[in-house]
UniProtKB/TrEMBL annotation, chain A:
Enzyme class: oxidoreductase
Catalytic reaction list: acetaldehyde + NAD(+) + CoA = acetyl-CoA + NADH + H(+)
Family: Belongs to the acetaldehyde dehydrogenase family.
A molecular function GO annotation: acetaldehyde dehydrogenase (acetylating) activity
Cross-referenced HAMAP family: Ac_ald_DH_ac
Species of provenance: Thermoflavimicrobium dichotomicum
Keyword Nucleotide-binding: no
A Pfam family recorded for this sequence: AcetDehyd-dimer
Protein name stated in the entry: Acetaldehyde dehydrogenase
Signal peptide: none
TrEMBL record, chain B:
The keyword Cytoplasm appears for this protein: no
Domain Pyruvate carboxyltransferase: 7-259
Name the record gives this protein: 4-hydroxy-2-oxovalerate aldolase
Catalysed conversion reaction: (S)-4-hydroxy-2-oxopentanoate = acetaldehyde + pyruvate; (S)-4-hydroxy-2-oxohexanoate = propanal + pyruvate
HAMAP family: HOA (MF_01656)
Positions contributing to Mn(2+) binding: 16, 198, 200
Organism: Thermoflavimicrobium dichotomicum
Keyword Manganese annotated: yes
InterPro entries: 2-IPM_HCS-like, 4OH_2_O-val_aldolase, Aldolase_TIM, DmpG_comm, DRE_TIM_HOA, PYR_CT
Single GO term (MF): 2-isopropylmalate synthase activity
An annotated GO BP: L-leucine biosynthetic process
Record-annotated active site: 19 (proton acceptor)
EC numbers on record: 4.1.3.39
Length: 293, 343
């Protein structure tokens, strides 16, 4: 069966990890990697794995190639330029930067709604990890307030995140409301420099409408089902402990271990982004191939 | 000493002290305490949720009052000192800071874990643009060497911080550690950048450490009335006023007013005494973030484990400030271990 031919924009850690995941895909073939640094390790790895590479950015590359789909793993600033170029050419884009030009997509929750969108945004790592949990609660009973605390290892927080940490908290909070279904959302991020580096860890608090025993059991089940669902594309996603119910608050604690494709396993926060992007791209591919037939 | 050393004191009763009262100070409490503080010679009065702007949360405890009411109450009565707020990037945002400035805040202290200064660039830069006096706050400074602290302090100064603090969040430092850290910063930073010190009394050393910091060139010291603060509290303002006067260090503090406010206003508002007890002492001993105290107490009660075991385990895992959620997770693990042993 044929596959969608993809270009990966950005030859940094994220772009390179994404390539390794796409190389295993049955639906997408990573054909090109586009960077701006000819000496980057990412472009070297890409060539080793048979991808054609470009080191003059997207505009120059698009004169020679016409990908079916583009994954952007550069920066929010660069993506604003890229989004325009790709839109002009009618190329579908999965945006892993915080630029948020297109609708926000959490792979486990609202992927179907935006499967035909020309540009989708992957929110934040904290969003990909925690919004599914809020959604798992809000599909059982109303959530008036959801709060998440994402703790990641310092080593896995790049300069982009560090220079604009507000973007993380604001965008994640928005996704808790828009996609998670909470009336009000709040996000907190903590960097921990411990050696050896810690795995990504998230605590999710939801203030719930109904608190009777039956509802609690339903919420517990719903959470476990959602964990299994996320595990289909992020195998290292797991509960640290049973959900705790106290008064009208349920608290959920999860840990995300990465696959260690290119990024180290502790960088589960980055891994969940690339894994979610692949999932979104694959669903888009399935849909497009079935309609082409 | 030919010339007397002159320093200024920032009071944190209405910020760090909030940890000790589970962030439950009312608008009336704030006005009463801030008015008294404003009459006793402190240069800055910090008033915010214990975890800074945006800190009111399920993770850290919800504030009794909204941030707006709390800050406006403080700013409305402060005439002499600078109303100040704390901000932890990752919890509070630039937008929170802009709102705080509208409520009347004149100075902002931007706090990060001591190795993560680069997440403060955005907030320190914006604060300077807004014309706020800007302070960098390196938390948990006992965890790393003076060399690393110098690197991180330089980053904060390069973003625009006018003062950089060494913060002993765990109350784990001894006098020598304070001395080498403060003197390293004083030696390495441009002379236009002030160096400050924030103590916790978990090992009973807050006064001694604050004095050592001044001797090494720190010109900004944090205190709170009756020591009200996380863990075993901060450097007690009234005690610091007394010892600095005896040492000939000029602070501008009014000793009797400080004593009266500590005993008559703050002590009656305490939920439990601020003291070096087995829990706060364990924090200093194990090097754990002082704000964890009441959370650890509660979690230990809920899961029937010794809170000291929880704190020691958190210390081993090198948990940093803000990771209050780990307290429950560790308590659950210890409970499970206990149950496994009993079987």
């Amino acid at each position: 069966m044929s596959k969608l031919k993809a270009a990966i924009l950005g030859s940094g850690n994220i772009g390179t990890d994404l390539m390794f995941k796409l190389l295993r895909s049955e639906w997408i073939e990573p054909a090109w990697m586009i960077g701006i640094d000819p000496a980057s390790d990412g472009l070297k790895r890409a060539r080793e794995h048979g991808l054609a590479t470009f080191d003059q950015g997207l505009k120059a590359a698009l004169e020679e190639i016409s990908p079916d789909i583009v994954f952007d793993a550069t920066s929010a600033k660069a993506h604003i330029r890229h989004a325009k170029l790709l839109k002009e050419k009618g190329i579908q884009a999965v945006d892993l930067t915080p630029a948020a030009r297109g609708p926000l997509v959490i792979a486990a929750v609202n992927l179907d709604e935006h499967i035909d969108a020309l540009n989708v945004n992957m929110v934040t790592c904290g969003g990909q990890a925690t919004v599914p949990m809020v959604y798992a609660v809000s599909r059982v009973t109303d959530v008036s307030y959801a709060e998440i605390v994402a703790t990641i290892s310092s080593q896995s927080a790049g300069p982009g995140t560090r220079q604009n940490i507000d973007e993380f908290t604001v965008t994640t909070a928005r996704a808790l409301e828009l996609i998670g279904g909470a009336k009000q959302g709040k996000a907190i991020i903590i960097l921990n420099p411990a050696e050896p580096p810690i795995l990504m860890r998230d605590t999710i608090y939801c203030r719930i409408e109904k608190t009777d025993e039956e509802t609690r059991e339903k919420i517990d089940r719903s959470i476990r089902e959602m964990v299994k669902h996320v595990q289909t594309y992020v195998p290292g996603y797991r509960l640290n402990r049973d959900p705790i119910f106290q008064d009208d608050v349920v608290s959920i604690s999860i840990e995300v271990e990465g696959l260690g494709d290119y990024l180290p396993v502790y960088a589960g926060n980055l891994d969940i982004m690339t894994a979610a992007a692949v999932k979104v791209g694959e669903e888009m591919a399935k849909k497009r191939m079935s309609t082409v037939k | 000493m030919a010339e007397q050393t002159k320093i200024s004191v920032t009071d944190v009763t209405l910020r760090d002290g909030m940890h000790a009262v589970r962030h439950q100070f009312s608008v009336e409490d704030v006005k009463e305490i801030a008015s008294a503080l404003d009459q006793m010679g402190v240069s800055h009065i910090e008033a915010t949720h214990g975890d800074g702007l945006g800190g009111s949360s399920l993770q850290y405890g919800l504030g009794k009052e909204t941030e707006e009411d709390f800050l406006k109450a403080a700013c409305s009565v402060i005439k002499n000192a600078k109303p100040t707020a704390l901000l932890l990037p990752g919890i509070g945002t630039v937008d929170d800071m802009k709102r705080a400035a509208e409520y009347g805040i004149k100075a902002i202290r931007v706090a990060t874990h001591c190795t993560e200064a680069d997440i403060s660039e955005q907030h320190i830069g914006e604060a300077r643009k807004m014309g706020l006096e800007t302070v960098g706050f390196l938390m948990m400074s006992h965890m790393v060497s003076p060399d690393i602290l110098v690197e991180e302090a330089k980053k904060m100064a390069s973003y625009g911080a006018q003062t950089v603090y060494i913060v002993d969040s765990a109350g784990a430092m001894m006098m020598e550690q304070v001395r080498e850290r403060i003197s390293a910063l004083v030696g390495a930073l441009d002379s236009s950048v002030e160096v400050g010190f924030h103590a916790h009394n978990n090992l009973g050393l807050s006064i001694a450490n604050s004095l050592a910091a001044v001797e090494e060139g720190a010109t900004r010291i944090d205190c709170s009335l009756a020591g009200l603060g996380a863990g075993a509290g901060n450097t007690p303002l009234e005690v610091f006023a007394a010892v600095t006067e005896k040492r000939g260090i000029r602070t501008g503090l009014d000793l009797y007013k400080a004593m009266d406010a500590a005993d008559d206003i703050v002590r009656p508002k305490m939920h439990r005494p601020i003291q070096v007890d087995r829990l706060s002492l364990t924090m200093g001993y194990a090097g754990v973030y002082s704000s964890f105290l009441l959370h650890a107490f509660r979690a230990a009660e809920m899961f029937k484990v010794d809170p000291r075991d929880v704190l020691v385990e958190l210390g081993k895992r090198k948990v940093v400030g803000g990771q209050e959620d780990m307290i429950v997770d560790v308590a659950v693990e210890l409970e499970q271990k206990q149950q496994a042993l009993q079987k």
